[in-house]
Amino acid sequence: MTSLIAWIGIGTSGFNSFYLASDSRISWGGNSTPLVWDCGRKLFASKNYPDILGYCGDVLFPSQILMQVIEHIDSGLLFNPDDTPLAKFQNILSIIKQSFLGYPILSSDTVSIIYCTRQNFFKQQVVYVWNLTWKTGKWNTNLLTLPIRSGLVQALGSGQKTINTFYEKWNRSEIGNTSRNVFSAFCDALKSGEDRRSCGSPQLVGFYREGSAKSFGVIYNNERYLFGLPVNQDAKWEGVEWRNKLFERCDGKFKVILDGTQRHARPNSI
């Protein structure tokens, strides 16, 4: 399993941003002494469109199919830019179901996939989020209801209970009902180690009011990561937007907050 969250940022003028975050651990075996690897990719973001996906549960099937889905989206093979969100989701659902017909066996009983997109509607941006789940031998779909204020939309995976506990704690603080407190709570949940199947660095994707989706680099434990993989010290940092555990915009080279960027202090009550 894993830890997977979706959340929305809402300002005075409405929708501002939407994000998915996950951990990077893949585990095999029972709960007592599982084999683990902390560099597994679990999130995917289109380079050309405002479409993001993530998964939890079984690893092999969703990691392979979602990578292929994103490539088809970016190549213009899966849908047209002016398709409705429902039409886009139906095309994604169709390709997942079709591919799954030839899949031999899942290593676990469940798969959960989150798909998120944005539509411009009469000069307003509307976000749609679907949860696609394989359980008890069939696929189930659910269009999620979004909150009217910034906050968590859904937490999934083996770390769900831990995430909700830390999120409630952060939400009771003086920065409750903000987008940044969701990610900070998520990082605290990972750091706690309460869910042994959720570990490694956080992964982060999202989209804003305009433009295509983004893949964010994360500065975690004073190291740089992208999709759970450590980033080489000689890399070019300019092509990636970086965030730390307080969700502050950072300079990827020096791992410090960007000049002129708003600082996010950790609440005294946490």
Secondary structure layout:
Elements (H helix, E strand, L loop, with lengths): L2 E9 L2 E9 L3 E3 L6 E3 L5 E3 L5 E7 L2 H15 L10 H16 L10 E11 L2 E12 L2 E6 L7 E7 L2 H12 L7 H14 L10 E6 L5 E7 L2 E4 L2 E2 L11 E2 L5 E3 L4 E2 L13
Parallel strand pairs: 12-15
Antiparallel strand pairs: 1-2, 1-10, 2-11, 3-4, 5-6, 6-7, 7-8, 8-9, 11-12, 12-13, 13-14, 15-16, 16-17
What does this structure look like?
With 270 residues, the protein is α+β, with helices and mostly antiparallel strands. It has one domain: Glutamine Phosphoribosylpyrophosphate, subunit 1, domain 1, CATH 3.60.20. Helix content is 21%, strand content 36%. It is built from 4 helices and 17 strands. Strands 1, 2, 10, 11, 12, 13, 14, 15, 16 and 17 form a 10-stranded mixed β-sheet that branches. Helix 1 packs across helix 2 and helix 3 packs across helix 4. The protein is globular, with a radius of gyration of 18 Å.
Q: In CATH, what is the class?
A: Alpha Beta
CATH topology value: Glutamine Phosphoribosylpyrophosphate, subunit 1, domain 1
CATH architectural type: 4-Layer Sandwich
Structural class, from helix and strand content? alpha+beta
Strand elements, count: 17
